[in-house]
Design brief:
single chain, alpha/beta, Rossmann fold, Double Stranded RNA Binding Domain, 3 domains, five-stranded parallel β-sheet, 7 strands, 46% helix
């Protein structure tokens, strides 16, 4: 089976997780990190999920799954070992064309969750199409070592300056060349060493007089948010 890689905007979308154990907990926390509105259907919850419910960050439906529970959902995750429940969730989701992931049961999924390394808004995902989650996790751990916390700052810096450059009205080809030149080979080390002076000097050399200094506060604030 071949899967099409895609990034979803889940903010404010209703997502349903069936199950309340450790696997469900991981799925719920991942959804919450994307600002989804999450409902959990399970008579039992982990301590962390109880805490999320107490804090009002999730809706807890304190019972087993029933047909009709997926009404209004955008995305569904079945994180339960009960095969009959998996089957029922699959049938309801399939009948309503919902996005569905059944944990560790690829043939009942229309999307799978890759192993993901995150550095702020930088997301690097690895998938083996469900053939070897262990290999995907191994590669993810290698990526986490390669791409350290400095990449979160780098993404914030580049994200802060991008709209200012685009708003200047330069031709697309010139914009592309500027964005490419901004990525100096030493940028990682400058960020690790908090060498703001070198970054600002490099940006001035690349941008010259084509844009003003409005980008400076964004560069500096990216370090403050570290």
């Amino acid at each position: 089976m071949s899967f099409y890689p895609i990034c979803l905007d889940l903010e404010a979308h209703h997502c349903v997780v069936v199950g309340g154990g450790r696997v469900a907990e991981r799925k719920v926390l991942g959804l919450l990190s994307c600002r989804a509105q999450v409902s959990v259907i399970s008579p039992l919850l982990t301590n962390e999920l109880h805490l999320q419910h107490a804090n009002g960050t999730i809706l807890w439906i304190d019972r087993e799954y029933r047909q009709g529970d997926l009404a209004g959902a955008f995305l569904v995750i079945a994180a339960t070992d009960d095969e009959e429940t998996q089957k029922q969730v699959y049938e309801e989701a399939d009948a309503n064309n919902l996005l569905l992931n059944v944990a560790d049961v690829p043939h009942r999924c229309n999307f799978i969750l890759p192993a993901t390394a995150r550095r702020g808004d930088l997301t690097i995902s690895v998938s083996t199409a469900g053939k070897s989650p262990a290999l995907a996790r191994k590669i993810r751990m290698e990526l986490e070592k390669r791409y350290g916390p400095e990449y979160r700052v780098l993404v914030n810096i580049l994200g802060g300056i991008r709209p200012q450059i685009l708003a200047f009205g330069l031709p697309q080809s010139e914009n592309e060349e500027l964005f490419k030149q901004l990525l100096h080979d030493d940028m990682e080390e400058w960020i690790k060493n908090k060498n703001l002076e070198s970054i600002e000097k490099h940006f001035r050399a690349v941008l010259e007089d084509r844009v003003g200094d409005d980008w400076l506060p964004g560069v500096r604030s990216s370090f403050d948010e570290e």
